[in-house]
Amino acid sequence: MITLADKFTSQLSRLMPFGKRNDDPLSSLKSASHWLETLPLGDAFKSQQAICGALKRLNESSTHLTKDRLAMFMLLDEKARDLQDTLVRQYLRNPRMSRPVESQLWHAVYGMYWEVARGYHSLVLHLSHEAGKNPRDEQIPLITLRAIRTFGQLLKWRAIRYLPAGEKLWLRLHNLYRIAETEGFHRRTQRVYADDASDCNCETAYLHILMLNLANTGTLYPKQLDLLDRWLCGWHTMLQLDRDYDPGTHSFSVDLSADHGPRRVRKQDSDKPLRFWATAVLLQKLDDLHADLQKGLPPAQLGLTVNGRASESLELIEFLQHQWAPLAAREQRRAPRETIKRLVDVAHGINAIVGQLKAADAPAKVSPYGTGLSYNEADDVQVYGFITDRTRERVSHMQLPTPVNSPDVERWVMHDESECGYGAIVESRDKDWLRVGALIGIKSHDASQWKIGIVRRLSRVNDDTSSVGIETLVEPPRLTMLYVTRTSGYTVNGLDNSGATLPHASLWLAGDNGADSVIIDPVHFTPGKVLQVHGTPERKFIALGNPLEHSEGWMRVAVDPVNS
After folding, report:
1. Residue 497: its pLDDT value, please?
2. Domain presence at residue 377
3. Is residue 444 a contact partner of residue 376, using CB atoms and an 8 Å limit?
4. Residue 34 host element (H or E)
5. pLDDT value of residue 432
6. Residue 246, in any domain of the structure
7. Are 350 and 439 in a shared domain?
8. Residue 312 region by backbone torsions, left for phi larger than 0, else alpha for psi between -120 and 50, else beta
9. How far apart are CA 164 and CA 151, in angstroms?
């Protein structure tokens, strides 16, 4: 029997909204706007994660597309941009952060881009499927352009962490461009976001991503990829896609039906939906920039970057001139690679390399009979006063003691070798230091001579392993000590306590025709600094010249002789 109270409760429940709580920020556009105002302004990470969670809820909800839902999604995307930019700057400005911090920041940035791309992609597919039936058709070009741009950020941030594309990102990106091309708005100029510096269209945004991918060989630093991403925004007008192939003009192509990026044109396949483009105009622009930088013009005046150095811009431009060149002018491998299986010892960082060179130069302290006397030897000494021949003969058949491996040395298996370096697949989960530009000492396991190597290429195979390309320098390193020739001028009771007179360990590289160089810690570098050298008979005093190369924790500097 149903009581009166039950009937009242049943009727009341029908009047209450079903499925969402009254305090749900996604219940309406007004609620979402009010909720965004309550986010903590001083905690960019927390606010960004909150918006990312809201976008994920919208993407996973089964609600049909409505005007409010579309407006809420675009509002959340726009409000998250400043927070996203804050986290991006934190990531790029802190290359020495620990692996847990790096992972947290990267996943936060990538997760936001993923939810935005995922949402816009589904909106484009839905709206394009109902073209002509939906009153929101006029928003398809803008939503498509935002989707293309965000998929480009996903590919860029996977490249920043040296990850393969995966997740069918290329197929989804190609599909978005095909929709824009089919609907005829691929060249319609739009302002993607209100705070953007310039307009663009779907074709230029798509080409932007393709050109960035052509430069991604696993050899660029994250900051270089980000710098190139900003440079490309000013070069959109120099690129255009064509359906028909012109062998005298076009250098690159992209297959819209394949799950991979662009390729150099080698042979045309008319059965595939290929698009072609030329880079001659852009390469001429790079030649002009290179010439202006060599003349001493600042990068900011050339429209490159405000805070960048001319040497860094020159290095990146020279790299792009090779990567974006036609097939006939592409960069060739300096030496052929040979597949091998070789065990090598690796020490990373200038301090570890110095320690290994010291150990290699130290006299042997272990006798053939071990570090101490055995029981039989001690018994002989007590009885006879010496070790008998019989005991010596017995010990001589014993295996010599195995030296203890240094904790600074790792053991890698090289998979290929050339005159210029090695290639290897290594475990990288616990190697925070393994990055492009890392300085390493390397030698065959059964050799005694160390070489200097630099990590030039890095590609993550999975969460546990990475593919590493290592360039080895021709010059053998020599351990030298550098002494500052003058005091710091800061004394206490007449004594210099600053530590400026302490020697600095360095790696001396003897070049051809006297073109020597030295690898030092960057904190000790000052142009023209005069140092006294111990460890090289040829030089007594040197002056530090121009930096030849530098990366995190080390710098290779040319040295000039100084008369004593």
Report:
1. 47
2. no
3. no
4. helix 29-37
5. 80
6. no
7. yes
8. alpha
9. 14
Residue-wise DSSP of 278-294: --HHHHHHHHHHHHHHH
Q: Are residues 347 and 439 in the same domain?
A: yes
Q: Are 391 and 377 in contact (CB under 8 A)?
A: yes
**Burial of residue 54 (number of CB atoms within 10 Å: 0-12, 13-18, 19+):** buried
- Helical axes 222-232 vs 202-214, angle rounded to 10°: 150
The last residue of a domain, from among 293, 311, 332: 332
57 and 166 together in one domain: yes
* pLDDT at residue 535 in the model: 79
The C-alpha R_g of the chain, in whole angstroms, comes to 32
Q: What does the pLDDT read at residue 485?
A: 79
Q: Which among 430, 458, 474 is the end of a domain?
A: 474
Instruction: Quickly count: other Cβ atoms within 10 Å of residue 42's Cβ.
Output: 6
- The pLDDT score that the predictor gives to residue 399 is 41
Q: What is the pLDDT of residues 33-57, one digit of tens each?
A: 999 999 998 899 999 999 999 999 9
Asked if 440 and 496 sit in the same domain, the reply is no
What residues contact residue 1 under an 8 Å CB cut-off, 6+ apart? none
d(CA 454, CA 556): 11
The contacts of residue 143 (CB under 8 Å, 6+ apart) are 120, 123, 124, 127
The reply to whether 16 falls in a domain is: no
The pLDDT of residue 564: 62
In Å, what is the CA distance from 126 to each residue of 64, 120, 168, 175, 179? 10, 10, 19, 13, 12
Instruction: Give the orientation angle of helix 310-323 with respect to helix 280-294, to 10 degrees.
Output: 150
Q: Are residues 441 and 485 in the same domain?
A: no
CB neighbours (10 Å) of residue 134? 15
What is the pTM (predicted TM-score) of this model?
A: 0.79
Q: List, in order, residues 6 or more apart from 114 with CB less than 8 Å away.
A: 154
* Eight-class DSSP state of 301: G
- The pLDDT tens digits of the residues spanning 373-406 come to 566 666 776 666 666 767 666 655 444 444 445 6
Evaluate whether 251 touches 326 at the Cβ level (below 8 Å).
Answer: yes
**Token code pair at residue 87:** 């986290």
Q: State the pLDDT at residue 335.
A: 63
Instruction: Say yes or no: 481 and 462 in one domain.
Output: no
Helices and strands (DSSP H and E) totals, the chain = 14, 17
Which pair of structure tokens corresponds to residue 451?
Answer: 């070489």
The whole domain housing 61 covers 25-240+252-261+272-277
Query: DSSP class of residue 331?
Result: P
Q: Which residues contact 116 (CB under 8 A, 6 or more apart)?
A: 55, 77, 80, 146, 150
Here the tokens at position 98 are 């620990």
Number of Cβ within a 10 Å radius of residue 456: 17
Q: Give the chain's domain count.
A: 4
The H or E element containing residue 495 is strand 495-496
Q: Residue for token digits 């597949």?
A: 339
How far apart, in whole angstroms, are the C-alpha atoms of residue 380 and residue 369?
Answer: 14
Task: Provide the pairing of β-strand 554-561 with 421-427.
Answer: unpaired
SS3 at position 182: helix
441 and 498: one domain?
no
Residues in the chain predicted with pLDDT less than 50, given as ranges, are 1, 8-10, 12-20, 364-371, 397-404, 492-499
Does a structural domain hold residue 79?
Answer: yes
The pLDDT of residue 300 is 87
